[in-house]
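> tool_call: predict_assembly(chains=two)
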Amino acid sequence: MMPLMNDNVNRRGLDTFDWCFLGIIAAIVSIGILSIYSVTNSGSSTKFPIYLKQTTWMVVGTLAFLVAAGIDYHKFARFSYLLYGVGLILLIIVLISGKTSRGSQRWIPLGPFMVQPSEFIKIPLMLTLASYYGATSREGWLRRLIIPGLIVLPGFLLILKQPDLGSSLGFLSIFLVILLTVGMKSKAFGFIVLAALMLFPFVWGGVWGSLHGYQQDRILSFVDPSSDPGGRGYQGLQSRIAIGSGQLLGKGLYGGTQTQFKFLPEGHTDFVFAVFAEEWGFLGSLVLLSLYVILVLMGLEIAFNAKDITGSLLAIGVVAMLGFGVIVNIAMTSGLAPIVGIPLPLMSYGGSAMVVNLTALGLLLNVKRRRLSLL
Amino acid sequence: MFDTSRQANELADIQSRLIFLKVGLLMILVLLGLRLWQLQIRDGVYYQDLSRNNRTRSIVLDPARGLLFDRHGELLANNIPSFQLYLSLEDVQDRDVLLSKLPEYLNVNVQAISEKLSTKRRRGRIKLKSGLTLKEAALIESHRIELPGVAIQPEYQRNYPLGAYASHVIGYVGEISEAQLKDPEFLDLQAGRIIGQYGVERTLDTHLLGETGRKVIEVDAFGYPKRSLSIQRPLAGNDLYLTLDIRLQRLAEDLLGEESGAIVALDPWNGDVLVLASRPGFNPNDLSGGISPQAWQLLLQDSRHPLTNRAIQGQYPPGSTFKIVMAAALLGTQTMRADDSLTCHGSFPFGKRVFRDWKRWGHGSVDLTKAIAESCDVYFYKVGNLLGIDSIATYSRQFGLGSKTGINLLSERSGLVPSSEWKKKNRGEPWYPGETISVAIGQGFLSATPIQMAKAVAIVATDGQVVQPRLLKGVRLRRTGNLKEEPTPSTQQLSLSPQIFSQIKEGLAAVVTKGTGKRAQSNIVSIAGKTGTAQVIALKDDDDKTEVAKKHRDHAWFVAFAPVEQPKIAVAVIVEHMGHGGSAAAPLAKTLIEAYMNVEVTTQAFRLKTEG
C-alpha cells in the first residue's frame, strides 16, 4: 500500500488526506440529514422535527469527533478498561430500568434524550481490544482468543439480552475482524469452527427461543418475502420496491412515493438507504456507496500506516464497525440479508449511533495524525 | 514491558493481513453495487410498477343510470341514494379477523361474504353489502380503524316506483356476474358494475349505462386517501322514453288481477307497444337490491312462473282467433268468396273421425261473416280441408306467426306454424290431412304468443301493414340534453287486396255486435275482435266442464282492434284457464280499449286547445 502523503508534512495542520476524509464524512452525514428531512418533513409540523434533532446530534458528534481526534489515542487506551467497565454497567442499568420499545430494552433516559449504551460501548470495546493486543504477546490461544473473548462476551450477552440482535452482531463483528487481523493459527481456528458447529444446535435452540416474535418473523420472512406482502415480508418487499423503483436517476428529492406515503416503515432509521436510493436512483446509490468505499479504504490505509499495534487495531475496529454497518444495512434493505435492525452508519436517524460513529472516525483521524510521532 | 522489536514484527504481521480484509470488504461492496444494479436497473421497471400500484388506487366512479319513462313521461325507473359496503382487497391485512369483526357492526351473511372473500384476487374492490341502513353505515364509519380496507360509499340504487307493474318489460338490474364478465358483450365492464339483467334494463343497457368515470388517488399504507391525482367524471346514461302507456299497462295488469295471462296492445300503424302485460309479475325492487339465494329459488320454483313474460314467451294454441288468418288464406287463395255459404250441422266427419262444432246443433247456412261472428268451426274445418296445411302455413307466416316479432326483449319465443315439411323434418312422419282440420281452428301443433296475435290483428286493422312491435320511443341524450325520437319503423305491405281486409273486418265487427264477442261491445267506441278458446286437453263431449280442475281448463283469448273505421289500437288478451274467450277475455279488451280511447280523446282535446 502506498502512503497517500509525504512523511515530512506538518503534523499539526491538516493535509489533503485529512480534508478529503472530513469531506466524505460531511457529505455522508449531509445526505443522511437530507434523506431524513425528505421522509419526515411531510405531515405533522412538530416544534422540533426529526431532521433538526439529527442535525443537533451531528453537532454533538462533531464535538466528540474533535475530542477523539485531538487527544492522543494512547491516553484513551489507558482508560479503555475503565470505559469498557462503565459501558457494561450502563448495559446492566438498561436491562434493569431501561426504556422499553417494541419489546426490547435499549435506552436510558438522560434528560430529554435517550441514550443507547449498546452503541456507546463499541468505542471502549475497540480501545480495550486495541490496547490489549498492543500490550500483550499473542503467543498461545489463551492470550490470543480466550482472554479477549471473555472481555467481549459479557457485552455481547448483555446486548443480546435486551434483545438487540443487530447491535449484538455489530458488537461481535468488531471483535471478530480484529481477531482475524491479529492472526489465528490454523489449528486454533479449526477448533473454533468445529466447536461452533457442535454447539450450533444448542445455540440455535437457545438463540431462536430467545428471539422476539418480530425477530423470528424477520428471519422467516427472509426465506420468502413475496409470500405475504401484508405480513412478515412487508418491510423487505417495500424496501426493495423503494430501491428498485428509483431506477437509474431516482424519483427526485421528496419524490419517493414508497417512503413519503409510509409504505416503507422506518424510512428515517434502518431503511434510510431505501429512501435515498428511491429518490436518487442507481447513480445516487453508487455515489453514496463509493463514499463509503473510500471511507473504508482510507480507514484501512490509516490502519496500515499506524505507528503501533494499538493504533492499527483501533483503526481496524473503526473500519469493522463502519463496514459491518454499511454492508449489513444495505444488504438487508436490498433483500440480500435478513432484516436484523442495523442502522446505516452516519445516515440513519439516531443520536447515540451518530455520536459513536463520529467519535470512532475521530479516533481514526487521531491514529493517522500520530503515526509519525515515534519514528 | 514494551518490546519494540516484537511490536514491529507483529505490526508487520497485521499489515500483511490487511490486504485480505481490504479485498474482502471491496468484494462485498462490489456485490452490493451489483445488487443495486439488479434492483434499480435490471428490474427497475418492475419495481416502478409495483410502487405505482402501492400508492395509487383507481376508483371507478359509477355513473347514474339513465331514467326510464313511459310515452307520456311517467317515471318508470329512477335512482335513489343508498349506502354500499365495499372492501379494498389490497388493504385487508387479515381476512379472517375482518370476517369475525363485521357481524359486530351490521347484519351480514357471514357465509356469503366469506365466499366472496375466498377469491384469489388480491387487488380491486368488492361489494360486501348494499342497502345499508343509516345506523349500520354510521357504525362502520366510526370503526373504520379496526376494519382496514372497509369503506362505505353512498351510491345510487335502482328504484322502480311502480313496483310489480310492467316488471317484465322494465326488468331489473344487478351486479355483473362472473359469467357475464367473460362474455365479450360486456368486455369493457368491470367487476361490481351494476348492469341491466332483464327486460329493457337489459336490452337497452348500452343506452342506460352511461360512462364510468375514474378517480386516481394516492393513498398511504393504511389505505387513506392523501390526494387526488386525476379525475374523470362519469357521464350518466341516457334517459329513455318507452312506447308503453303506463296508465293502460296498469289497467291491463289490474284487469288480469290474480289470474295468469297476458295482454298486449299495439299502435297498429307504427308498432308502438302500448301495453305488454304479463301476470303474475314480480317486484323488480327486490331483485335489483341483491336478492337472497333462497328468495331467488322461491321465485324460480313458483309454479305460476312469475319470471316468465307470457306476452312474448307464452306459446298458446291460438284457438278460434286463428280464424282471422284462415279467412285471409281463404280469400287470398280465392278458394271461396266471402259470400259463399256452407252448411253447418254441428259436426264434420273426416276419415274415421268426426270433428265437432262448439255449437252441438250447428250454425246452419254460414258465409264468411257469420262464420267469423259465430266462430263456426265446421265452416273452417271445411275451408282448412280445401286449403291444405301448406297453404295455411304460408298465410300464417305472412301474418307473423311462427317467427319472433323482434321486439327488443330477450327470450321471445316464436310459436309454431306446422307444415308438411316441418312435420317430416321434426317428427319424421308425413302430414295427415286430419291434422289440418285441427289447425284450421287454431289447435293441433299450432301455437302463438300473445304479441304475435296482437301483431296479426294489427295487420288486419291496417289493411295489411306489417310493423315490428317496438318499445323505445325516444332517447334523451345526456351529452346534449336533446330528446331524440326514434324513427318510425318501416312497414311492409302484405300483398292482399284491401277488399279482403274489409271483408275480414266485417266479420270481426260482427263478432262484437252480434257474435261470440258481444261482451266487448262498447258504447263509446266501435270494436272489432275475435274470441278464442285454446284447448289445454281434449275433453269428451259429456264431461261436465265446470267440474274440470282449473289447470285443465281452456285458455280464453280475445284479439281486437278499435275503432273499426280508423283503427288506433290492436289488442290481444289471453287469460289462462278461464274458458271461453267471449266471457273471460273480451270484457278486458273492451275496458282497455275504452280507457285508451278516452285518454286519446282527452289528449286530442288538450292539443286542440293549446294549438288553437
